[in-house]
């Protein structure tokens, strides 16, 4: 019996306009009314994820930064898992030596090297999404950029020390070889988890800061195991929860490695794939 439904956000819960559709909101509320807990599991920071749910009257717990921080329904933090300090120093040295763009993510802010370059990159992302999906994202993209701007800080402001190590590091490059070389250099370090949410990035967290591990730890306190969990996602940073959940769904618009891991295939986010899965669960199709 499914007691918990965990969903990724971008490319999964959010549609092509980067918002929750009316059908998806209705499905989530019906799920919660049926006594099944709904959890967000995202690579986003809390401040970026929360408003999209709050705007639709949905209250839930959030696993953020790929599993590095859990925020409960009351906004309280549980089990923050930063990257080990020495590994951060090693990676920063490599990134600076090779002039690779990167950012730090704390529980509260995003620390970036070049604010203008970051905003340009984000605008480019939304513009390319708009062209690919043939939709107008101008107002939505601008609104999200403005909303997140107050959380953007300079990397120079980050006080890196053994007691203040980042929760997540993001690396950006349009050159696949740059990302592959970094993966080759640091991919075998046992304390790190390196994944990706787009072709031009890598996301680094502590090995224990993965969506699946975070969900399992959160539910253990409630006496719920992963056999009672349904999880859905589209990107490489969703792999751990899809491997660990008994009912795992990959979005049709997801990457191939994720589709190979999941037990079931969901309709794409442009067709309210998450809502369709929830409706099927409530209809008793997955027991």
From TrEMBL:
CDD domains: HAD_Pase
Name the record gives this protein: Cof-like hydrolase
GO MF annotations, alphabetized: magnesium ion binding; phosphatase activity
Record carries keyword Hydrolase: yes
Organism: Eremococcus coleocola ACS-139-V-Col8
Keyword tags: Hydrolase
Gene Ontology cellular-component annotations: cytosol
Pfam families in the record: Hydrolase_3
Keyword Hydrolase attached: yes
NCBIfam families registered for this protein in UniProt: Cof-subfamily (TIGR00099), HAD-SF-IIB (TIGR01484)
